[in-house]
Specification:
Helices cover 48% and strands 6% of the residues. It starts with a strand and ends in a 14-residue tail after the last helix. It is mainly α and 518 residues long. It has three domains: 126 residues, Rossmann fold (3-Layer(aba) Sandwich); 154 residues, Serine Threonine Protein Phosphatase 5, Tetratricopeptide repeat; 165 residues, Orthogonal Bundle (DNA Cyclobutane Dipyrimidine Photolyase, subunit A, domain 3). It contains 22 helices and seven strands. It binds flavin-adenine dinucleotide, ligand DLZ and iron/sulfur cluster. The site of ligand DLZ has 16 residues, from helix 1 and helix 2.
């Protein structure tokens, strides 16, 4: 008898642990499109198309190798709609003596898996997901005994361990981090590289039709869909980025521009997260480009830090701290998510732009996520669980292990500084400096209070005032608090009153499925 090997939608790597030691004669691979996964948040339509189409392509690849794949489609009339149900049904179709699976990317699914042995009466081999640089055990050793974690120190250990951008035991170029070089603004006349898109093939077109019919009201445009859904195309996307994006990736990494959602960013997170690319190969590609003189060091280092540093760091935190992590709310933020996160209908031009990019592409780059939609949610005191559900739904690369620490920790400071040493709170001046958004806005980032004042300015001071009890003692927040305290009391009161009046205008988001404008 063989094994039933379950491959989930983010396990689409030929060398994923669950396929190790596969016996073509006796084993069966099970893949299932299930309503429960499609529905735990109202995913962007392109995210649904991407995952389901990539799953179908991966199944075809396995079949072409002579591997037996039992594939259940979302519209199969007899489907149970859940992983547990599909596993149970599959066991009645196949005579197997064990179940093999790779650990999932979500605590929720991990809890399901833990019940499978008892439910099936078969041994369940849940294998560690070894597609990361840092195992869960390795991260736990690093974190042991530390009161707060700092990415920079973790990253240096990862550099030493992997040898990436190292010269012996010294960092390449003498510095670990070249971020200071990476905060340039975009000049108006800069010509951005056209970004590669992949036309939908027949499989993707069929999935698009399924999603159009089944999820008409989910957030986001369905077409045009230009994401890669196979490893071959994902590798093409990587090559394109290394050649055309990476050379300028560092310099303007934090810039934002109207009508230009991609700039020099990699657009590779969905491929990394479902397994079409590996973190090791993308870091090696960047390092090789640097060693060949094709990209400057600040670009290669900046990119490798995101993948080897941040990506591994947030994953380590997720698995070490869950499930309690998701429940904390250090700043007691309880306001509902404004409706404009779904509709984009707001006169705050920066929010409208980022929500618009997100609706069109299921993508926004890091600074848009952190400093526009994230910053607003932090400053306005939105309930962490509501903004987390939004991020998990709307981005094509969103899986709980990576989305949650970024939103809960980095954006909302809901973990009381475990992940980041201070909240990324910023007024309109930051957005104005790093983007051209304010030029198209009803508000003025230079106006602090009164007619035309940028709401980010009002909310910024109000955020500091509301959270003084928790943040005043943070040494990294000392300067803004000194400014707040030095303000003329009448002016400060006016700012706080206007901030509250603005907050009162924010309509609450409607739950579950969001209507789009398309
Ligand atoms: P690039 O800018 O080209 O960066 C290269 C790669 O670095 C990315 O592909 C990604 O794999 C990695 N990376 C960069 N920053 C981070 C980070 N903070 N955490 C983890 N990996 C990182 N990333 C996701 O993959 N899924 C998410 O659900 C997600 N949610 C986020 C939510 C918020 C509020 C914020 C601030 C960031 C979030 N990120 C998330 C991180 C980052 O924004 C995306 O990885 C990035 O925008 C993806 O686009 P790219 O491939 O063009 O990235
Ligand atoms: C995100 C997602 C979606 C929308 N659909 C499926 C699916 O139908 N079948 C599947 O195996 N995986 C899907 N996924 C990805 C899973 O939610 C993902 O594997 C978990 O989030 C990881 O724990
Ligand atoms: Fe955003 Fe304020 Fe600039 Fe308008 S003025 S785009 S609200 S930062």
């Amino acid at each position: 008898r063989g094994a039933l090997r379950l491959i989930l939608g983010d396990h689409l790597s030929r060398d994923v642990a669950a396929l190790d030691g596969l016996d073509r004669e006796h084993d069966v691979v099970l893949m299932a499109e299930v309503a429960e996964e499609a529905g735990y948040v109202p995913h962007h339509k392109q995210k649904l198309v991407f995952i389901l189409s990539a799953m179908r392509h991966f199944a075809e690849e396995l079949r072409s190798e002579g591997i037996a794949v039992d594939y259940v489609r979302l519209d199969d009339p007899s489907t149970s709609g859940s992983f547990t149900g599909e596993l149970t049904r599959a066991l009645s179709r196949h005579a197997v003596d064990r179940i093999v699976v790779t650990e999932p990317g979500e605590w929720r699914v991990r809890a399901m898996m833990d019940a499978w042995a008892a439910a099936s009466g078969l041994p369940v081999d849940i294998r560690e997901d070894d597609r990361f640089f840092c195992s869960r055990g390795r991260f736990a050793r690093w974190a042991e005994g530390r009161k707060a974690f700092r990415m920079e120190f973790f990253y240096r250990e990862m550099r030493r361990e992997t040898g990436l951008l190292m010269q012996g035991d010294k960092p390449e170029g003498g510095q670990w981090n070249y971020d200071a070089d990476n905060r340039k603004t975009l000049s108006k006349d800069r010509v951005l590289p056209p970004r590669q898109r992949f036309a939908p093939d027949a499989i993707t077109a069929e999935v698009m039709e399924l999603i159009r019919q089944r999820f008409p009201d989910n957030f986001g445009d369905l077409a045009p869909f230009g994401w890669a859904v196979t490893r071959v195309d994902a590798l093409r996307a990587l090559d394109h980025f290394i050649a055309d994006g990476l050379p300028s990736f560092g310099d303007v990494q934090d810039a934002m521009k109207r009508g230009e959602p991609f700039l020099y960013h990699g657009l590779i997170s969905p491929y990394l997260n479902v397994g079409l690319l590996t973190p090791r190969e993308v870091c090696l590609a960047a390092e090789t480009a640097y060693r060949r003189g094709k990209v400057p060091l600040n670009a290669a280092e900046g990119f490798i830090r995101q993948v080897l540093g941040w990506r591994e760091y947030v994953r380590g935190i997720y698995w070490r701290e869950m499930p309690a992590y998701a429940e904390t709310n250090a700043l007691d933020a309880t306001r509902p998510l404004p409706w404009f996160y779904w509709s984009g209908e707001t006169d705050l031009a920066c929010i409208a732009e980022v929500v618009g990019d997100t609706r069109r592409h299921a993508y926004a780059h890091h600074i848009q996520r952190l400093m526009v939609t994230g910053n607003f949610a932090l400053l306005a005191g939105i309930r962490p669980a509501e903004i987390e559900a939004w991020y998990l739904a709307v981005y094509i690369d969103a899986f709980d292990w990576v989305e949650l620490p970024n939103v809960h920790g980095m954006v909302m400071f809901a973990d009381d500084g475990l992940l980041a040493s201070k909240p990324y709170a910023a007024s309109g001046a930051y957005i104005d400096r790093m983007s051209d958004y304010c030029g198209a806005c009803a508000y003025d980032p230079k106006i602090k209070v009164g007619k035309g004042a940028c709401p980010f300015n009002l909310l910024y001071w109000n955020f500091l005032a509301e959270n003084a009890g928790r943040l005043r003692g943070n040494p990294r927040m000392a300067m803004p608090y000194r400014t707040l305290e030095a303000m003329d009391p009448a002016r400060r009161q006016q700012i706080l009153d206007e901030a509250h009046a603005f907050i009162d205008t924010l309509g609450a988001s409607q739950p579950a499925v969001a209507k789009t404008r398309d």
